[in-house]
Amino acid sequence: MIGPREPASDASNRRFAGYRSMLEPRGVQFDQSLVGGVGASTSPEGHAAALRLVDSGADFDGVVCSNDSVALGVMAGLDSRGISVPGDVRVIGIDGVSLGAFTVPSLSTVEPDRDLMVSSALSLLLRQMSTALSVDMPVEQVTVPFTVVPRGSSA
Question: Class assignment of domain 2-112+146-154?
């Protein structure tokens, strides 16, 4: 998994927890040496993290990225080291950015239900705006369904 070095947000923490929770049921033991950190969730950071992972000599055949921007950088970093995606290493991101469909290979992604995400955010915002300033609104976590969109990067 390549994601933020430090807990950057609840979303990144939950994505990492999701990644970890899916390993054991598939017979894969968690290995901290296979976790690459990024300082920011950007393509240049993903590129640098991929180079560090390859240069470490770690044996891996797939990379789960904390978002699609990081994944695009990871794919470029792997390519710069002569590693084929998806031939040698499969890559998947999270967010479903439209650019991912047009990369070569196209980026596999975990795409959230955007309509529900937007309507939930607007509902929370309207509720907060209609509440008196003196009222301390509790933080509310919203989790939306998602779809895995398999594309070329995960063959």
Answer: alpha beta
Phi, psi for 86 (deg, rounded to 5):
-100, 5
Q: Alpha helix locations (H) across 60-151?
A: 68-80, 114-129
pTM attached to this predicted model: 0.87
Residue in the block written with tokens 């904390």: 66
pLDDT tens figures, 77-118: 999 999 999 999 999 999 999 999 999 999 999 999 999 999
Between CA 73 and CA 100 the distance in angstroms is 11
**Distant-in-sequence, close-in-space partners of 76: CB < 8 Å, separation ≥ 6:** 43, 46, 47, 50
Tell me the domain boundaries of the chain: 2-112+146-154
- The C-alpha atoms of residue 149 and residue 146 are separated, in whole angstroms, by 9
